[in-house]
């Protein structure tokens, strides 16, 4: 009887979730970003396959799952090593998603969700699995917290790992350990997680599990006998995965009888429900209707809905110690949801959890409406987009060349690309973005320090002498087949890298660690690396300290007038070369105009590179035959439209492409 | 049957809502001036509407010019993208007037359709002013037998009336007419000849795919002169492939030597779909570079002016009093009829281009006769469009933009904005400015006037492109005004 009652209650809850999540809603968002799928893989989707479907599911009683019956784990892997497929298989194996004919539709939905959730990284799906544990068949609650693969989001990886006690380290049986494998291993290792090595794709003809086992031993000191051999594609070896998770990974350590402490893992904005927070209950329990407070903001909220991702939002009314789920609490903006915050029962006193370091913005770039009058539209688009991607920092700025715009901080270049793409595809904004820059610190003779996120704000001829400057660096991990070592070393030293480590994973693969100035890898390092290694290099980095560096501001001048949006900060020794490249590039993109144009690169008042675009000599359509005015007029209209798309500095028209092309000069 | 094998058999339906030319019966009333467009002409004085020379009215007056397209050519020149019909070598016999049995039925057919079009054209003004200019363009109109030209002129005359002293121009190619034909045409009333010389070098003529050589040019000149044609023009093309400055100077020298009253100098445009397009890229060898090409333009301007020709329009030069009146119609934004394949007309403020394919054109004429075309007058005048046209067309001429008329028609503030955008170019010498009496206004004076709208309107008479620097950049300069008028 009581279970029936619960069922009907759950049913009501499901209904309460707006049924308007019809396919119409999704199809409108069905644009774009398929390449992102491969980067972020399944990760976006599971968490985002949010909305309670209209099928009534039996309600889930979480009370059966004390923390010793809970395992929280994640899957970490290098891109394309099979993480997404493995995750899918585990979800199928536990019946969380249906295999066979039901699945394509499910995946369709996932694809849509991928479009939406690109920057909300920590995803979770809750699974239930029966396992003979210590001699009795026991039902376990397993939370799969997935992580994104790309280097830009390593911050997100560590965030996800905070909710886990163990991780499956997936390695491709042919490719072996790659740079991200290393990076992710250390993230997991430093979080004290139990690591289960999974050698995947053993069905490939080139699979060599023994070599990989040896790599795992030499690189990470992982016992070869502990490695699971699987093929997520054929299903081979999959049956060992969940038992290993249950037996090797410890249950979450929290205390169920202590006051509630929850870690806020992530948040995103849902147009219908508002802010949805993704939480891990560390201690105590949370029930629907309770009042909670944020340790970070002091704000209080009522818990309107609570549940798990199964993989869609499934209301449970309660979350117990060690469990991972979602809450809806009436927050109005994701800005209120500080990731890493501790949430607790209002009027209780708790020690806040350690939390995370705030997201570090590594790359800054100016975003301007391609058409100056579109500022409001761009403003609106950015506001909407940042609701779902709180990891972007946005401040208004203005440029004499580009008008009003925004200075945005990103976690990395991919993140920046994704943001641009979403702005264009989802909000129809046309943007010009300025050369990405990294945050520098300049110190002046009077001891004052200036943080520079926009090179234009650095005075070209400062009143105070600059006594020191610092630039951010990264620790880069590069794994390559040994024949490419020479060219990679050359590349890294060209990029002012300092070699920290050089060893061999096995007879064929070299492992190198470099300290590189972030600026040097921001633009085209990865592409260059890929191209000189025929695509075999794998690369990852983590941010490291600032280092003192001899930096100068490089101004670009058109007919003597500096173009603020083109200013850049470079190392003094590279200024000459970069200056020349920029000037040459600009010459290619600036069309001849009615006046001669000089393009200069200058440090302070010293010109270091110069090109001239000679004046246009002729642009005349001589005939206007038989009075066919219309045709000529069309041509002139086109010319006018062309001018409209130009940005004007002094008397010089600069085509938008020129700005975008400059991005490609390192 | 013949038509079928010669022309594309694909029938393209003409859109049913083509608006054929039809001019206004009523002189403009206030209602014609749309209130929504007042912004453009906000400062226009209200009595403009009564002034028949107003830029707001001139295009609405009934046409007194007609362009007649005679599309036949022996072959298509390599640079040509006009709607033409290549007859092939078989009809070279039509050079002479004698063997009329050999008249090509394609020409006859076409001219009959052309006359039907003229007859079916509705007149809306009564009485209808007689035509003051007629221009036979092509194609190669001189390929058409005089008796068919006569048919056209008769039809025009009876339909629209023809002034006794009307300028009747005909484009004629060397090698397509003899003395007898020339005389015949003069008797019919043709009184201006535009001779398609293009170049005086055998290799260039050949490279252009012209159907004549240098010898035919000299013969043609001889015929024109001996027949006593007083008003005639030589057409030349600059920037041809492999053309050197020496060749260009030679062509100009020879053109000056034969003493035409008018010279047209066209700068080669590599048009889409032409043979030249497949062969050449503008600015790249064997076409001259942009600099060389500009140099050609300057050479022409210098040599022709030194020889006493007035550079009265971007590509036109003439001896005093020999401007092409028909073309002036275009530059003054006056209305004109257009008849024939692909021809453009401007009647009652509506610009309309006829189908470029013969079959479509035939069908168009049929529909016109059947009254199937929407004849409703487009009484709506877009003042922005009008202002843009006025600027574009008048800046092609040496006279330039009549600022007073422009200000009266479109308002002092728009005028001021245009003057503002041109300020730097008056300073750089790309444009010049004069008061009503033609006295030059210096750039300093001009920039001073910019601060005083009232004075500007009073003092400044004309704004024009300088010769040759301004003319050479006319597209750039004119499009600046476009940006001001309709941003």
From TrEMBL, chain A:
Entry membrane topology: Peripheral membrane protein
Which Pfam families does the record associate with it?
EFG_C, GTP_EFTU, GTP_EFTU_D2, LepA_C
**Known EC number:** 3.6.5.n1
Q: Name one GO cellular component term.
A: mitochondrial inner membrane
Return the NCBIfam families for the record. lepA, small_GTP
**What does this chain do?**
Promotes mitochondrial protein synthesis. May act as a fidelity factor of the translation reaction, by catalyzing a one-codon backward translocation of tRNAs on improperly translocated ribosomes. Binds to mitochondrial ribosomes in a GTP-dependent manner.
| Family as reported in the entry's similarity comment | Belongs to the TRAFAC class translation factor GTPase superfamily. Classic translation factor GTPase family. LepA subfamily. Belongs to the GTP-binding elongation factor family. LepA subfamily.
Recorded protein name is Translation factor GUF1 homolog, mitochondrial
Biological source species: Forsythia ovata
Automatic annotation (TrEMBL), chain B:
Q: Which SUPFAM superfamilies match?
A: Radical SAM enzymes (SSF102114)
**Where in this chain does the record put each Radical SAM core domain?**
58-310
**Sorted alphabetically, which Pfam families does this protein's record hold?**
Radical_SAM
Q: Which Gene3D superfamilies match?
A: 3.30.750.200
Q: Which InterPro entries match?
A: Coproporphyrinogen-III_oxidase, Elp3/MiaA/NifB-like_rSAM, HemW-like, rSAM, rSAM_sf
Function, in words: May be a heme chaperone, appears to bind heme. Homologous bacterial proteins do not have oxygen-independent coproporphyrinogen-III oxidase activity. Binds 1 [4Fe-4S] cluster. The cluster is coordinated with 3 cysteines and an exchangeable S-adenosyl-L-methionine.
The record's NCBIfam families line, in alphabetical order, gives: hemN_rel (TIGR00539)
Q: Which family does it belong to?
A: Belongs to the anaerobic coproporphyrinogen-III oxidase family. HemW subfamily.
Give the protein name, as stated in the record: Radical S-adenosyl methionine domain-containing protein 1, mitochondrial
């Amino acid at each position: 009887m009581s279970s029936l009652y619960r069922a009907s209650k759950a049913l009501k809850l499901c209904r309460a979730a707006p049924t308007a999540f019809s396919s119409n809603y999704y199809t409108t968002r069905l644009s774009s970003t398929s390449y992102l799928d491969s980067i972020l893989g399944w990760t976006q989707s599971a968490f985002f396959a949010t909305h309670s479907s209209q099928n009534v599911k039996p309600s889930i009683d979480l009370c059966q799952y004390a923390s010793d019956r809970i395992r929280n784990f994640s899957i970490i892997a290098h891109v394309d090593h099979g993480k997404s497929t493995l995750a899918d298989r585990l979800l199928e194996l536990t019946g969380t998603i249906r295999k066979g004919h039901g699945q394509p539709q499910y995946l369709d939905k996932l694809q849509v969700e991928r479009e939406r959730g690109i920057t909300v990284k920590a995803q979770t799906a809750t699974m239930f699995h029966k396992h003979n544990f210590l001699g009795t068949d026991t039902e376990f609650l397993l939370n799969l917290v997935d992580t994104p693969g790309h280097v830009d989001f390593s911050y997100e990886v560590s965030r996800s790992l905070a909710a886990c006690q163990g991780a499956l380290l997936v390695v491709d049986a042919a490719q072996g350990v790659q740079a991200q494998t290393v990076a992710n291993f250390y993230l997991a290792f430093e979080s004290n997680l139990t690591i289960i090595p999974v050698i995947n794709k053993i069905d490939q003809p080139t699979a060599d599990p023994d070599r990989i086992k040896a790599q795992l031993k030499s690189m990470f000191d992982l016992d070869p006998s502990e490695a699971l051999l699987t093929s997520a594609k054929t299903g081979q070896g999959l049956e060992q995965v969940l038992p290993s998770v249950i037996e090797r990974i410890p249950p979450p350590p929290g205390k169920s009888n202590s006051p509630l402490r929850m870690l806020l893992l992530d948040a995103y904005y849902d147009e219908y429900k508002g802010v949805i927070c993704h939480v891990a209950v560390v201690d105590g329990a949370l029930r629907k209707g309770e009042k909670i407070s944020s340790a970070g903001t002091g704000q209080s909220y009522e818990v309107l809905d609570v549940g798990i991702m199964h993989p869609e939002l499934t209301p449970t009314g309660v979350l117990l110690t060690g469990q991972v789920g979602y809450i809806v609490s009436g927050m109005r903006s994701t800005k209120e949801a500080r990731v890493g915050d501790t949430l607790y029962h209002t009027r209780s006193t708790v020690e806040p959890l350690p939390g995370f370091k705030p997201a570090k913005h590594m790359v800054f770039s100016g975003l301007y409406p391609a058409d100056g009058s579109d500022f409001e539209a761009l403003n609106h688009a950015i506001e909407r987009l940042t609701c779902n991607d709180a990891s972007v920092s946005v401040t208004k700025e203005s440029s004499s060349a580009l008008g009003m715009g925004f200075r945005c901080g990103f976690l990395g270049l991919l993140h920046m690309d994704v943001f641009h793409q979403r702005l264009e595809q989802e909000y129809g904004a046309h943007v010009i973005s300025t050369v990405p820059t990294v945050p520098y610190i300049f110190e002046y003779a009077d001891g004052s320090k200036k943080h520079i996120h926009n090179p234009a704000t650095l005075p070209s001829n400062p009143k105070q002498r600059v006594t020191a400057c610092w630039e951010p660096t990264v620790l880069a991990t590069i794994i390559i087949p040994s024949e490419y070592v020479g060219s990679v070393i050359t590349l890294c030293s060209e990029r002012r890298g300092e070699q920290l480590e050089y060893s061999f994973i096995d007879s064929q693969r070299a492992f190198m660690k470099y300290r590189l100035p972030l600026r040097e890898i921001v633009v085209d390092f990865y592409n260059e690396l890929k191209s000189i290694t025929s695509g075999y290099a794998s690369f990852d980095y983590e941010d490291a300290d600032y280092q003192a560096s001899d930096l100068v501001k490089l101004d670009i001048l058109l007919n003597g007038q500096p173009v603020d949006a083109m200013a850049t900060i470079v190392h003094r020794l590279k200024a000459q070369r970069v200056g020349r490249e920029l000037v040459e590039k600009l010459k290619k993109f600036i069309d001849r105009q009615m006046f001669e144009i000089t393009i200069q690169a200058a440090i302070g008042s010293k010109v270091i590179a110069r090109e001239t675009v000679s004046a246009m000599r002729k642009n005349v359509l001589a005939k206007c035959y038989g009075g066919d005015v219309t045709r000529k007029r069309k041509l002139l209209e086109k010319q006018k439209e062309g001018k409209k798309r130009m940005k004007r500095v002094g008397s010089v028209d600069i085509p938008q492409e020129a700005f975008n092309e400059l991005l490609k000069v390192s | 049957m013949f038509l079928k094998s010669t022309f594309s058999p694909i029938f393209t339906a003409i859109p049913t809502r083509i608006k054929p030319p039809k001019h206004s019966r009523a002189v403009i009333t206030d209602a014609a001036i749309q209130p929504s467009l007042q912004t453009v002409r906000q400062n226009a004085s209200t009595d403009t509407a009564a002034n028949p020379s107003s830029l707001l009215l001139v295009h609405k007056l009934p046409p007194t010019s007609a362009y007649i397209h005679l599309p036949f050519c022996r072959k298509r020149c390599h640079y040509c993208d006009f709607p033409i019909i290549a007859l092939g070598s078989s009809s070279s016999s039509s050079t002479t007037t004698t063997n009329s049995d050999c008249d090509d039925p394609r020409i006859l057919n076409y001219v009959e359709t052309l006359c039907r079009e003229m007859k079916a054209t509705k007149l809306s003004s009564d009485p209808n002013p007689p035509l003051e200019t007629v221009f036979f363009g092509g194609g190669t109109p001189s390929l058409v037998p005089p008796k068919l030209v006569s048919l056209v002129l008769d039809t025009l005359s009876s339909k629209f009336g023809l002034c006794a002293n009307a300028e009747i121009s005909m484009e004629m190619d060397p090698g397509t007419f003899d003395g007898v034909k020339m005389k015949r045409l003069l008797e019919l009333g043709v009184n201006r000849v535009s001779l398609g010389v293009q170049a005086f070098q055998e290799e260039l003529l050949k490279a252009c795919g012209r159907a004549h050589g240098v010898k035919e040019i000299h013969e043609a000149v001889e015929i024109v002169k001996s027949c006593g044609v007083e008003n005639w023009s030589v057409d030349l093309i600059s920037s041809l492939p492999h053309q050197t400055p020496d060749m260009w100077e030679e062509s100009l020298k020879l053109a000056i030597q034969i003493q035409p009253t008018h010279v047209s100098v066209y700068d080669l445009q590599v048009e889409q779909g032409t043979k030249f397009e497949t062969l050449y890229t503008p600015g790249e060898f064997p076409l001259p570079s942009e600099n060389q090409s500009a140099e050609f333009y300057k050479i022409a301007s210098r040599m022709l002016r030194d020889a006493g020709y007035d550079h009265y329009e971007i590509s036109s030069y003439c001896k005093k009093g020999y401007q092409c009146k028909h073309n002036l119609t275009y530059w003054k934004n006056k209305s004109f009829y257009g008849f024939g394949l692909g021809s453009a007309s401007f009647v009652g403020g509506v610009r309309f281009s006829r189908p470029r394919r013969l079959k479509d054109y035939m069908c168009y004429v049929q529909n016109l006769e059947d009254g199937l075309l929407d004849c409703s007058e487009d009484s709506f005048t877009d003042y922005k469009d009008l202002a843009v046209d006025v600027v574009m067309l008048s800046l092609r001429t040496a006279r330039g933009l009549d600022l007073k008329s422009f200000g009266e028609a479109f308002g002092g503030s728009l005028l001021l904005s245009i003057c503002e955008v041109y300020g730097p170019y008056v300073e750089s010498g790309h444009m010049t400015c004069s008061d009503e009496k033609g006295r030059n206004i210096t750039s300093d004076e001009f920039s001073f006037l910019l601060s005083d709208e009232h004075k500007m309107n009073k003092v400044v008479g004309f704004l024009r492109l300088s010769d040759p620097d301004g003319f050479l950049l006319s597209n750039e300069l004119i499009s600046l005004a476009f940006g001001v008028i309709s941003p």
